[in-house]
Amino acid sequence: MHPELLYSQRGYQIEDFSKTTFHNIDLPLLARINAAGLVFEAGPQVGYLFARKTKYDDSAIPDITGRGQLNKLQFGYIVGVGYQLESGPNVGIRYNRSITKLYDGDAALPGGNKIYNSVFQFQLGFAFPGSN
User: Fold this and answer.
1) 118 CB contacts (<8 Å, ≥6 apart)?
2) 8 Å CB contact between 36 and 56
């Protein structure tokens, strides 16, 4: 098993209206298979939403910083593939998706409360000797 502790920033933008950013602490627990440098990984993830900011293009509308109807605790999964050189450098791509809805209850949004986080992540890294 390969545990990680990550800070992640997610969000969305509505053109000419607003930009929303979510700040999360994520804890994935991944099973990793290294096949001659080719790395496959998959596993569950739990995340905590600790901050949110929505900034509106119209300065007459105040920014939103509260978490309101957002689910603070998010559960999801990760699947990924990458390549690890014996000398340490590595590269990979992951797909990360929540199974917990972003909004709790009956959020008054387009799509209601049936909105989930999902993201493709590209990573460059370095594994120190003995840390594989």
Assistant:
1) 95, 96, 97, 98
2) no
Give the tokens for residue 106.
């009956």
One pLDDT digit (tens) per residue for the chain, 132 residues: 888 999 999 888 889 899 999 999 999 999 999 999 999 999 999 999 999 999 999 888 888 888 888 889 999 999 999 999 989 999 999 999 999 988 876 655 665 567 888 889 999 999 887 655
Q: Is 56 exposed, middle or buried (0-12, 13-18, 19+ CB in 10 A)?
A: middle
Under a CB-based contact definition with an 8 Å cutoff, are residues 39 and 83 in contact?
yes
CB atoms within 10 A of CB 127: 15
